[in-house]
Hints:
Layout: H1 13-23, H2 25-29, H3 32-48, H4 51-62, H5 87-101, H6 106-133, H7 139-154, H8 157-165
Amino acid sequence: MRDDIHKHVPRPPKVRRWVQRALREADRLADRSVGALEDAVRDACKSEISGGFLRGLQRYMDIDQANLFGVLGGVQSPRELGGNGSPMERTILSDCQRLTASGRSLREAAQDAIADALRERSHADIRAAEPVLLPTRGPEAYRAIDQMKADVGKLDYRAIAAERLGLQARQPRSAPALSPDENLLGPSGGGR
């Protein structure tokens, strides 16, 4: 398989880096692809969910308002909260309204809605990578797609959403530990 095939995935550079890390066996074994996914998700969060929209949600979180349609019942557009009206903001707003109308607190609803929108974005990135990788029919392409799906399952989207909402501080990412007895030049899978 070509080393630069990840460059043909029609997604932002950080998503292409995630695809690249999923394609490389060494990066998969060192769990670097999850870190690349986290970087891509944080980038998408910053670019598609405006600070004004998040501040607007936070203002509503502080209001103790109960009505028939929930706290955000009268809000028709993300622009009313200070957002830019991106598709992701519209999805988050409608999910928040649905969840608060069913009795959830706005804090939990916003965190879940943002996490779900970001997770769905990651699934869309995988769907965008499949037509580029799978026609090669190489075993590495199938492993990369499987790795990307596993990465989505491992990443804590709720924590990223809570950080973006200001509900918790960002946790530092730790590097995977290396064993001093590990043979880094030998074959993978523990063989000697």
